[in-house]
Fold:
Amino acid sequence: MSTRLATGGRLLNTAKPVNFTFNGKQLRGYEGDTLASALLANDQMLMGRSFKYHRPRGVVAAGPEEPNALVNLGREGRFEPNQRVTTTELFDGLEASSQNHWPSLEFDVGAINTHLSKFLPAGFYYKMFMYPRSFWKHVYEPFIRHSAGLGKAPKARDEDTYEHFHAFCDVLIVGGGVAGLEAARTAGRSGARVLLLEQTNHFGGRAPVDGGTVDGKPVDKFVEEILEELSQMENVQLRPRTMGAGVYDHGYVLGYEQLTDHAPAKAGPRHRLWRIRAGHVITATGAIERPLSFAGNDIPGVMLAGAMRDYLVNFGVSVGDRTVLVTNNDNAYLTAIALKQAGLDVPAILDARVLPQDSELVAQARALGIRILMGHAISSVKGGKRVTGVAICSQAGEGAVLEEIACDAVAMSGGWSPVVHLWSHCGGKLRWDSKRACFSPDVDNPPKGADGVGFVTTAGAASGMFPLDDVLHDAHAAADGVLTTLGFKLPRDISAPNAARREEAPLAPVWMMPHGASAKLREKTWLDYQNDVKVSDVRLAAQEGFVSVEHAKRYTTLGMATDQGKLSNINGLATLAGALDAEIPTVGTTTFRPPYHPISMGAIGGGARGATFQPLRRTPMHGWHDANGAEWEPVGQWRRPYAFKRGSESTHDAVMREVKNVRENLGLLDASTLGKIIVKGPDAGRFLDMLYTNMMSTLKPGKCRYGLMCNENGFLIDDGVVARIDEDTWLCHTTTGGAESIHAHMEEWLQTEWWDWQVYVANVTEQYAQIAVVGPNARQALERLGGMDVSKETLGFMDWADGTLGGYPCRVYRISFSGELSYEIAVDASHGQALWDALMAVGADLGVMPYGTEALHILRAEKGFIMIGDETDGTVIPQDLGLNWAISKKKEDYLGKRAQARSHMTDPERWQLVGLETTDGSTLPDGAYAVGEGTNDNGQRNTIGRVTSSYHSPNLNKGIAMGLVLHGPDRMGEVISFPGVDGKVYEARIVDPVFYDKDGEKQNV
Structure:
């Protein structure tokens, strides 16, 4: 049985007992325990069930690579599923429950799947759930949805808070083992700004567990001294409980800090997401021990040898009274020696190798009286919910049992694999190290920055260096090289510390135990513990033609569990290579993607939740609108007045009043939300000619031009008025919802395609308030303000001018989206409300009224002006809307031009923009589809068009609409039908889309 020993536990504070519960059972641990060590100390070997077969699962590792022991933590607003017991620090009152079972952990009905395993091999779902087709909706889909997932999804609102933190450093070091500490000290001594991240709450990594001496002192003393030295360096920052989650371009790294998980009562945010920019990144992330593949290697009590050593040394926990150790390398002997020295029984060490002579550790184990069987292996592990014994066989054979040994724990070690995830995230390449049987970083092909120079360096075991002396020297050399690259210098007398060397015999690659295991044994040999992927599954995938490692991964789900294959990938690759009779390097690896270890959704969101999830953007006149009856409409992140209601009038009546007033008197529109992007530089004109369908480089200063913007697929994404400010400067107006996306669109092309063009873009939307002064009395109102000439002769249509109105410096654009005499006046945001008040005052006897977005839409629809998002839906091109006039015939190219020449884009069957009027004067339902004759393959009526915009016009006293209709412009006067969701069929006549003032006389007065 597993228990707490009377001695040991270097990380424990035994003076502080901690009470916690598991599945409602009251248990006790100590401060410093992880949940895993505390459960093992209470003989809780069974901690969960696997996903597919619901097999009993116990803890197999001691770190983030743990695939088995996932639990639900907390309750209600602090409930979180799928938390690893190996990384969860124990605290008083912790509540944990196992998951993926019913009705209980000990008795799980789902375990029947184990007996149906022959019918549930890899990829069974691709075959089983296809037929009969009628079963999908009512049988297969409900079953799959019920079976999906491991833990329960939280239902209550998260009570904790989270934050983001930005940091900058010269050298970022990920990993606080001895390699990371030595690299940090070396870099710190140069004066460079150093940030070191360590995912646990203690530094030193495996070194204090494995032992050794550095410069004649015990390694744990070395760790204490180096931490003391680092704490005195003002340029070095150490962050425990902080994981390096991902490495991205340009030295950008995400860190994930768990601030209060170990102390929920502590005030402050629970998690912090670090957004780090580093001059160079050193990954000292260590290595992960690999399991061995033998029948029954998933039974609770079978554990990695290094993990068993961790529990013994760090937490004073014995996983079993009698432990059989099975290995292919010397490192595992440290576990056998530690167990024996702790007074525990090790009946045998099964070493797959046959060594010509004993190495230092083998000899030490023999001297302790441990029986060592060379060339032997485990044929199978006995037991169900815990280990009861092992059957021994020859490694070179097929599994014939030579002997059975009673035991209650098995420690296994298949070698070590460097943690290369962060190195690989941003393109670092790997090489196969045949000597150590692992993939390690290819130092000649590191992740490279924009300058073509590597910006990530590995150190220590992450480089494939495993002896302590090699680890320290490699870390020192890595830091020294990075400092040279960054322009820092070390004092001449600084050198790497020296560790006592312990010579070890070479590892023997063992991918199957025994080597010639029978099919029966392979069917009980597990690679991916969580997803229940067996050796036989990978061989089946190869047999069925899934020879690509990425295909085999998806077919079998190997490495797709929450541990992302940290324990299973190498063994799985080797198994696939064996099935294909190929070398492991030729099979390759799957793709390493961030984050290295799952991070909370709360940390990703940070402070973006509730009211701050999408902060409301308000114009300078927002308060005035709110006080004067504005009914708000969300437009992107902005809130715009939909209409200004007066007294008890309805919203519809308010809109009708506003529309008529603009046509007859004077209206004010808050247009501050429209995007305003400055494009500046010697190549700005060239750049805009590529972005817009028409020419912008020929626009003269003081003039405006309407432009259309398409994406590379030819579809219309935005429109707006462009003003040329001076020889090198343009101001591009965009739609309200498009300001940020168009700015990002510009930056993407500048940074990825036209990076050598001299262009600068800036989004200045919020820097200016913009007011549209619209209607027959618009000019008269501005003349009353005084300060500049706004006459037709001085400021013609599509002109702009800088000047002063009412004492406020401003820029006046003579543009119109209503078809009326209109001016748009831009002032500094701080002057917006004052100018608005001034306009309301001078327009009092001119019939001035504010109007909202709905009135704006009706006014533009009366004039046949398109609206992005109404007339466009991501599949519409300018030619569909009759905007050929806005496409330059002079330009050789623009974004989307080539796409618009495709046969699909030039198809005469594409729907075209027209106007629509109902025969009875009613208003067409927005979005309604026009139906034609016949039916499609699904028995539905054929559609020949759809309504894109529909309104009641108070000026025309009838419903008007715009729509896209098959052969629309050629069908003027024809009546087509639009079935409504209300059961009524609307008859509408196809007409010209310009309903009001077709010749544009009103806007040109």
Remarks:
- The chain has a mean pLDDT of 94.
